[in-house]
């Protein structure tokens, strides 16, 4: 469970942002003004101002009050306004793709520096962010947890200290944060459609990642399509938990599952990062793709084109999600964007004779 941060920790970045609107030598807000504006106690204000004085951003002049020091201009002048993209340090192709896509968008946002930042995936949120050191004016966040609930959203709001933020990679409306993400339900139905249109009526969906709003929505998309078109469907849950090595656990589960009789002729993977577990299990069970089993996945085409064989892919379009998130951040729009996507065929689906 995320522990609430002290109120002084919450107030500090807010006062830091206020400081940047003052010139060196200018008188800063009084204690009472700060108490009224931010609705905090005098004790919290005293602690926060004491820290700013210790760091030499404020100086006390007798009974006249607090004044902004020269240090504030030196500190902010050397660091341009920054948008921080915070992503979990997963052992995943997605991390590299996200950070590369973010950096490549720099020419489209010339007034701000775009800076990637990785945090420990063992926690849903970073413990700290370099907001002051990097002069951060906006944040993009891809949470690491299986879910991003209201308590975590509140903790993130305290962490960001009033700095505008947009979430991407998750469309969890309970967070009440603006977000840009894939329409995961649509992606699941598009993957199932690829198998159905090639004559497959007995399908499976492979849940090879931790349960979260994205993976479960993809499963739901497959389930809804199968029900609508009266297809048989088996849901295969590999039981992967957050922090576990998903490809390895998927391999173990599918190597055992494929030893037993199975009726499905096509399978949808909810994530390309862990699909290698299925492909290796098929190889070691002498099950040919697409000859004996057709495969479609949702994920990154940059990864799936390197598989043996390459796999038909419903593209997650992480670069598109990040660009939409940046545009949402720039607009100040508090809404949510769900991106539709495309399927790219790479020869992993066999056309069945339906006569």
Model description:
The chain has a six-stranded parallel sheet with strand order 4-3-5-6-7-13, with helices on one face. The protein has a six-stranded mixed sheet with strand order 9-8-10-11-12-14. Strands 1-2 form a two-stranded antiparallel ribbon. It is elongated, with a radius of gyration of 25 Å. The longest helix has 16 residues, at 213-228. The protein has helices at 7-19, 31-38, 42-54, 71-77, 93-104, 150-160, 184-196, 213-228, 246-257, 275-284, 301-304, 318-331; strands at residues 58-60, 66-68, 82-88, 113-119, 136-141, 165-168, 179-182, 202-207, 232-237, 266-269, 294-299, 312-315, 336-339, 343-344. α1 (7-19) crosses α3. It has three domains: 7-75, Orthogonal Bundle (Arc Repressor Mutant, subunit A), CATH 1.10.10; 80-182 and 320-339, Rossmann fold; 184-317, 3-Layer(aba) Sandwich (Rossmann fold), CATH 3.40.50.2300. Residues 1-6 have low confidence and may be disordered. With 355 residues, the protein is an alpha/beta fold. It is 37% helix and 19% strand. 41% of the residues are buried. It contains twelve helices and 14 strands.
């Amino acid at each position: 469970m995320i522990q609430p941060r002290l109120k002084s920790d919450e107030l500090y970045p807010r006062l830091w942002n206020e400081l940047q609107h003052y010139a060196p030598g200018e008188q800063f807000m009084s204690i009472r003004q700060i108490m009224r504006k931010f609705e905090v106690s005098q004790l919290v204000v005293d602690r926060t101002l004491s820290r700013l004085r210790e760091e030499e951003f404020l100086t006390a002049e007798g009974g006249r009050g607090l004044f902004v020091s020269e240090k504030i201009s030196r500190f902010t002048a050397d660091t341009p306004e920054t948008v921080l993209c915070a992503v979990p340090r997963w052992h995943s192709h997605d991390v590299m793709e996200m950070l590369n896509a973010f950096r490549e968008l720099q020419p489209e946002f010339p007034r701000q520096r775009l800076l990637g930042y990785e945090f420990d995936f063992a926690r849903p949120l970073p413990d700290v962010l370099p907001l002051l050191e990097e002069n951060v004016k906006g944040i993009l966040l891809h949470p690491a947890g299986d879910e991003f609930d209201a308590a975590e959203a509140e903790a993130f709001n305290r962490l960001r200290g009033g700095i505008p933020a947009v979430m991407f990679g998750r469309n969890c409306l309970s967070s009440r944060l603006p977000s840009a993400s894939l329409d995961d339900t649509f992606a699941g139905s598009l993957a199932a459609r690829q198998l159905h249109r090639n004559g497959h009526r007995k399908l499976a969906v492979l849940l090879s990642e931790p349960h979260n709003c994205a993976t479960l929505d993809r499963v739901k998309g497959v389930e809804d399509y199968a029900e609508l078109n009266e297809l048989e469907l088996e849901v295969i849950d590999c039981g992967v938990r957050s922090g576990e090595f998903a490809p390895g656990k998927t391999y173990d589960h599918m190597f055992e599952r494929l030893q037993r009789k199975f009726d499905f002729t096509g399978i949808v993977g909810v994530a390309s990062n862990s699909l290698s577990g299925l492909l290796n299990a098929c190889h070691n069970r002498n099950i040919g793709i697409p000859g004996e089993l057709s495969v479609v996945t949702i994920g990154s085409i940059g990864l799936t084109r390197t598989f043996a064989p390459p796999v038909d892919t419903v593209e997650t379009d992480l670069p598109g999600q990040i660009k939409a998130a940046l545009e949402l951040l720039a607009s100040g729009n508090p809404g949510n964007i769900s991106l539709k996507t495309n399927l790219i065929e790479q020869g992993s689906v066999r056309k069945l004779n339906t006569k």
